[in-house]
TrEMBL record, chain A:
Keywords: Cell membrane, Membrane, NAD, Oxidoreductase, Quinone, Translocase, Transmembrane, Transmembrane helix, Ubiquinone. The chain crosses the membrane at residues 6-28, 75-98, 118-140, 161-179, 199-217, 244-267, 287-306, 326-345. Pfam families: NADHdh (PF00146). It is an enzyme of class 7 (translocase). Its EC number is 7.1.1.-. It is found in: Cell membrane; Membrane. GO terms for molecular function: oxidoreductase activity. The gene is nuoH. The keyword Cell membrane applies. It catalyses: a quinone + NADH + 5 H(+)(in) = a quinol + NAD(+) + 4 H(+)(out). This is NADH-quinone oxidoreductase subunit H.
From TrEMBL, chain B:
This is NADH-quinone oxidoreductase subunit D. Its EC number is 7.1.1.-. GO terms for molecular function: oxidoreductase activity. NCBIfam families: PRK06075.1. It comes from Chryseosolibacter indicus. The keyword Ribosomal protein does not apply. NDH-1 is composed of 14 different subunits. Subunits NuoB, C, D, E, F, and G constitute the peripheral sector of the complex. The lineage of its organism: Bacteria, Pseudomonadati, Bacteroidota, Cytophagia, Cytophagales. It holds the Pfam family Complex1_49kDa. It catalyses: a quinone + NADH + 5 H(+)(in) = a quinol + NAD(+) + 4 H(+)(out). The gene is nuoD. InterPro entries: NADH_Q_OxRdtase_suD, NADH_UbQ_OxRdtase_49kDa_CS, NDH1_su_D/H, NiFe-Hase_large.
Amino acid sequence: MSTFLIYKLALVLAVFGITLLVAMYSTYLERKVAAFMQDRVGPDRAGPFGILQPLADGVKMFMKEEIIPNVSNKFLFIVGPCIAMITAIMAGVVIPWGNTITIGGETYTLQIADINIGILYVFGVVSIGVYGIMIGGWASNNKYSLLGAIRASAQMISYELAMGLSIIALIMLTGTLSLREIALMQGGGVGSDWNMWNVVYQPVGFLMFIICAFAECNRMPFDLPESETELVGGYHTEYSSMKLGFYLFAEYINMFTSSALMATLYFGGFNFPFQNDLGLDPNLVTILGTVAFFLKIGFFIFFFMWVRWTLPRFRYDQLMNLGWKILIPLAIANVAITGLVKILVK
Amino acid sequence: MASTDILNTPSDVEKGYSTLNLGPTHPATHGIFQNVLTMDGEVIVKSEPTIGYIHRAFEKLAERRPFYQITPITDRMNYCSSPINNIGWHMTVEKLIGADIPKRVQYLRVIIMELARISDHLICNTVIGVDTGALTGFVYLFQFRELIYEIYEEICGARLTTNIGRIGGFERDFSPKAWAKIDKFLKEYPDALKEFEKLVMRNRIFMDRTIGAGPISAERALSYSFSGPNLRAAGVDYDVRVMNPYSSYEDFDFIVPVGTNGDTYDRFMVRQEEMWQSLSIIRQAIEKLPEGPHHAEVPEFYLPPKQEVYNNMEALIYHFKIVMGETDVPKGEVYHCVEGGNGELGFYLISDGGRTPFRLHLRRPCFIYYQAYPEMIQGTNISDAILTMSSMNVIAGELDA
């Protein structure tokens, strides 16, 4: 029992640390990717190739003067970024980072909690994340913040619907809500138990999911809540110091989590092709699987950035049109077609 | 300040309207503008622009300055294309004193002015991209404005506030280095511009955002006395370079692009096409460039070269008179206009024969566009309002003068 606890504690700490590290280096990667796309150099002063830049930014964030507007609701003003940060980190709990590792006869799963409603849990936690933005935007007592907060909540609520519907089709296919089981289903070798990644069965669902993921993360082209040229800074206009850092950080963590989700749900999670045909040690396969998983996540994070530095952003009404008039009907049609195909194939 | 009488009236409060201060320091108001918007949710019910944040009394300043000292003032109007302002002012004075400008000077001026037009349109169009959220095009094309600035630097030594040329011509002919830089720009820019067009022009999101945003009809535009790309986007083919050619513009073949709807997308497209036309004009000018002096024979106004001043009595006298601002000009009244970066830039000059203008009125296109702005954004939302502002290329320095 105690080994189990120690192991879980270690895993929690590891996941926590890795999440923060990835989010931190996403900021660096974002700036480098942007620089690459814009024919610039990007950060290159702190350390070789500027790899210490995120640390410098972190120190800067902590050292900055903390300004809480007099007219704001102080308690909620502080609670806002905390909620955003906490919910962002919490979503990583159910992500299966890898398959099992066997050490000394004991089998350890590389997942903090394999709850059987994993997907619902993620949705629930992400929905609470909206409160962080809403509360923060409202508590600032600034009209730009309020507009940003209203946009954020409207956007997230409408895109969560489409996201949920796109997932339903996938769940119909897999028959489980547990992320680990979904990941395992996409594994297997070329031989007897060959299973394709879900994206092959659900291409439309995946497209809708990735669009909604962009909207949920407030990333371009859906970054209306913080569109700097319209609303100054959106919901975090009045924030400074590490509270601003929390909001920005939460965005990157959300990006990381949704990349992990996309990889798990549609791109085979910790599975990689031919994993059972190479005749490797199971532990080694698990480790390679985790590496493959992070490569997939890395690709999606890069994709997020690629899109951000290429596309313009929507207008508010166009965003709503896309969500309600295109994505939701499409998602419902996807569910219907999936069901129909399932019946016919059976 | 005007803002007191536009605060919500009781009936506005009952309707649930709110007031939003857009500016004076807002990331999307490129320059210092204030707009007090009455909003119904995100829809603009009415807006009240406030101007004068960087009013520097240029017209009054000009009444106390000798003619050649007014050129730096014109720099600070539309600072995205200051050479056009400078040369426009030089040409106004030359019209007053009746100077005969050599063909070479006119062609060189055309080259400079078209470069300035490119840099102006380049900034405007890429900033439309920034305001829709596409930052990459802006940063990418901005490198080419740098090339244009290097050309200015080679010709006159300055970059932003150029103070380029003199009354009567240029202080010196273009150096071989300047020609090399112009060649480099002409060679590299078209590819980058094409890339930018590929990135933005047919982008679905960009088109959805800009088509129908902040439109103005040709009638309204004319009644506001619009000019330049903003008028042409509304469908009126008025271009000072064609209607009232100056500086030998009649020698060049170019198309005046016009739009149909007068919305943000049309303004964007008109400017985009004008950049291509400007490139073609520059090429034609280089090809046809005649030999000759780089300045007119107007010794009372054209500062003589230093070695002449040291060795030649006449030159010393003129040098002294010009520098001390003692040159008198003929009495008269002239209006001269040039096609500026964003419209007809006019100089209305009255001289009473003294060393300074009696009165100088500047026809500043931005001042006119900004008056139409409240009408154009009524009933739209903030996103469109900001796009309208950036696509009209209202520049605070020119608005307030």
